[in-house]
Amino acid sequence: MYKSYKGSKISKSDGSNNSSILFWLLIVFTSLYMFWAPFQKALFNGNSYDFERPIYSSLVWTFLALLVLAIYFFYKWKFTSHQDLLSLLIWLMPLSFLIAKISEASHRFATNTFYIEMLYAAFFLIGLYITQNNLGNKIISNVIMISGYVIVWFGLLNWFGYKSFTATMVHWFADISTNPFEYKDAVMQAEGQLRLTSVFQYANTYAAFLMGIFLGALYFIVESKKWQVRALHAFMLVPIILSILLTLSRGALVVLPIVMLLILPFIKISRQLFFLLYTGISAVLCLVVLSSTSAIGRQIHMDHKLTTSSQGLLFVIGVSAACAIIVWVIHQFGFLKVGDAIESKIKAKYSNILIPAAALIVGSLGVYLLFGTSVVINLLPDSIKHRVENINFAQHSVLERGTFYKDAVKVFYDYPFFGAGGGAWAALYEKYQNNPYVSRQTHNFFMQSLVETGLVGLLILLGLLIYIFTLYLKKHKRNDESNPGRHLYFIVAVSILVHSIIDFNMSYVYIGSLVFLCLGAMISGSPLPLQRIKAVQERVKIKWVYASLLIVVSLFMFITSTQKLIASGLFRQANTLAQTQPNLNIILDPLNKALDSQPTHPDYASFKIDLFFQMYSQTKDEKYYNEALALIQKARQDEPHNRYLIDKQIASYTVKNQLPQALDLIQKEIPDFSWDITLYEKSISLSTELGEQARQAKDDKLKEQYWNEAFDTYNKVLLKVKDLESLPKGQLQGRPFNVTNNISLNLGQIEFLRGKYASAENYLKAGAAGSLDDPGVRMIARWYLSSLQKQGKNDQALLDKLIAKDPKEQTEVTNLANFAQ
């Protein structure tokens, strides 16, 4: 927007004041977004209502920004360069998600994801055009780094116990829990370990983000000519490395050296040397504070022996200051001399890869020292030492990710060309999963894209990335010294995208928007011209058409996003009213308005269905039942795989005693939720009950049909339990999947009623050994003791324990034993 920037003066040749105003509007929006979005749980797209509202807010403001950009295009956009071509091609990405909606697995997930992809395209365009000049480039690169540093200190302050303080700082624009008053899960406990997550509530994505910020800080240190800038970034090296280690992310420890090797060849050889030197210095200094910081965190968050630790915080600040001073001294007195000497002596064509190659050798030695000996690893705190020692291909997280990827390929086989729409994995994974894990994310950005948009969408994504990185490499080679800060965008994008091969970082809308902002900014600044395209003669018309279409699209997306945001607020209002307001009509007023905007939103619909079922239970008024049933059927048309809606439909049958229809529905859904043991339980329970009704009606054929169906379902459970035995040794199965007490009780009851008391005993024996404080176990014990009495046996010890709980149990057992077949 501004053709040049020198010092603090803006070139007058840039055009009208209109473009200047538009430029600053976009700069202000992007800057505010970079500070606001992280504190909205980084806008995690968790495919549930809890995460939607801040995402809708980000959509509203982003499409307003896109409208501003579209107006700018009327003044400045020309179809003359590769970056202009990419400003058109980027829309193929959301288009692939729009096409995928034809075969969408979930209307809500697919629609939300399409909107998010539109947001990514908008950020790509913003990065492409507001960083064209040095001023925009300088502002955006600094905003990325400074906002990153804020996130780092936010996390560390929470680690050192200053949870109320950090919550006070951000509560006016972030969702803060009130009891206790804190940003939830900035520090998380998992499997007896403490993990730093800062704003992300997920340690691995935080680690991926930290990698980009850490490497960006190193880059600014070796590139900047101002000592103040170098000192600031050097000061942050220790806190960032410390934060990476406190995340306990094994993936980050593996990926960081790889990313470093990818970015080093694009830095001058003399700067590579200092880049690695400063990495080593900050890593060594980090070890000075690591053990004490780890111990303090445990005392605060797990042992609760401390509330805060100013001493620990000041220790980190002091070591960080020492790092800044050391780096400043080395750079001030050694950088130019050593740099000039190296540059003058090493002028080979591929000299830039010499140090990365040497680093690879040294890194291999480091890996040997870390894993092959105890020299280095013993310096680490036990929690981090344990994580590092478990880095191997036979650990649960690696094996489970392999299972995710194999299951994702199964989905791809069924939706090969255009995919199953945005959020397809979250909607379908239970149908294709190999074992009963719980993961609504594929843990791989590219595999998730394959599932959601098929081969066509994945090729579009890969094609765009290849095109963008190819243009950047050409531009970097031609103009190495121009806009040195621009390499930051490459570093951040590569860091996150490479780590996204093993995790779901891109499911955070903040991370996705940051990546696409960087992808656009990477190739901005010095556009490479396109060869003349004969089929495109009148470029002015293209400008007007494209800008006009962008205005229409941005207005449409702004209006629909606003509607979604308002609907989310209305649903929240309805939930609040339901806690205090007994009047159904008052609750329904905002709820119906929310449903008018999103008629098949499963959370909105489920809430209304529950209200109507409650009213039907109280009044027996058929209108409530009929409206609930109609809403279930309508919502399931758009959300056929929504587990909660399936439960609502099952309930709609059972409340009317339509048990055969309920059983048929469960049997139909079991293949789509083949590792959900509760469906097998319900199926066997209904088959048992329907068989008993047929027995009482003297219909032996129907009785045996239902009871045999119960055993068929049981055999399916046994086969799947057998399948779990084939899992690799280091892989956990996930959710419990086994023969439950309810299943054993129902099968034992069937065999008892059939007169097969020995068989009934076998089914009931294991369940009867449980705690008699559980009413379900007492029920099993009654049937078990009765089956023994039928065989002339007894378990006096169990009977005594049962009677001790309730003397009436003796009568219950006797009555069952005398039960007429």
Automatic annotation (TrEMBL):
GO terms for molecular function: ligase activity. Pfam families: Wzy_C (PF04932). The chain crosses the membrane at residues 21-39, 55-73, 85-102, 114-131, 143-162, 203-222, 234-267, 273-291, 312-333, 353-380, 411-429, 449-473, 485-502, 508-530, 542-559. InterPro entries: O-antigen_ligase-rel_domated (IPR007016), TPR-like_helical_dom_sf (IPR011990), WaaL-like (IPR051533). Residues 308-462 form the O-antigen ligase-related domain. Keywords: Ligase, Membrane, Transmembrane, Transmembrane helix. It is found in: Membrane. Gene3D superfamilies: Tetratricopeptide repeat domain (1.25.40.10). The keyword Transmembrane helix applies. The keyword Transmembrane applies. One of its GO terms (cellular component) is membrane. Its main location: membrane. Coiled coil: none annotated. It is a multi-pass membrane protein. This is O-antigen ligase family protein.
